[in-house]
Amino acid sequence: MQNIDHFKVAPADVRYVGTDLSRPECIIAERDGTLWIADNRGAITHIEAGSGKQRLFGPQEGVPNGIAMTRDGEFIVADIGAGVVYRIDRDGNKRIVLDSYEGKRLGAVNFVYLDDWDRLWVAVSTITEPRSAALNSVVPDGYVLLMDPEGRNPRRVADGLRFTNEVRVDARGEFLYVAETTAGGISRYRIGPDGSLSGRETFGPMPLFDGAKVDGIAFDADGNLWVTEITRNQLVVLKPDGTAITVFDDPDGKTIDFPTSVTFAGEDLRTVYVGSLKMRSVASFQSPVAGAPMRHWRGDVTATA
């Protein structure tokens, strides 16, 4: 196991990928180096491996936030502006997957996550309108839906969350980890055989520090959970025992501003990409620990169109 206790990201370690991106909140990386980045100008910006050539892909509408890649190389998108989940096929066509639950609007759909069992987890930050009101105070009206990738059989598996953000399932499939933005930390639930959740508990400091707001989370191969924090532009690693290690801190946002997600990439999964709501490119650096491979790395998935 690699030791991450003394790892720090210095400004000189950071490189940048992509140009003129708009709100590049979430990043999908393929094994060959291809990147797919959520982009306000179109659903996704595609950056080719090697050449770095980029193009917009999908519908040029809404506010794409979290994205996930399916087994067949298509994309599922959480549109936080329209409050819907939709799917983009490999020709760039859009199809609504879910736009309501129990006869009501979904709310601020923040993130979608496909786990190793092809379960689709949908994180809804808040039903408060405008959603900014729920960011400026603690409003526990966020929730999580569970369904299949086609949007069938949606059911609410968690609620009472404080601005639900990214979610992840651990490597053993035992726990769902949830970033609660306005709580400033991470909660987790034990996952039952049918996908039901129970035993909500905090994981690591809650909050990370007074006034903290967390956003994106991702596991590395050693079971550490990487967390982005947006008020001090931090990257924090939570070790398996919950101990918090700050590996990057940039309160002035000179190197990384408003970090929203962490994606491990590269053939050895040691290249880290950091999404952002404010930057026009994606920050990148090298990690001493490999990332945990995402669902789409485990098969012959390709989305290159």
UniProtKB/TrEMBL annotation:
Catalytic site: D215
One Pfam assignment: SGL
Residue numbers binding a divalent metal cation: N165, D215
Binding site for substrate: N110, E129
Cofactor note: Binds 1 divalent metal cation per subunit.
Gene Ontology molecular function terms on file: hydrolase activity; metal ion binding
Every SMP-30/Gluconolactonase/LRE-like region domain range: 25-276
Keywords recorded for this protein, A-Z: Hydrolase, Metal-binding, Zinc
Cofactor dependency: Zn(2+)
Protein name: Sugar lactone lactonase YvrE
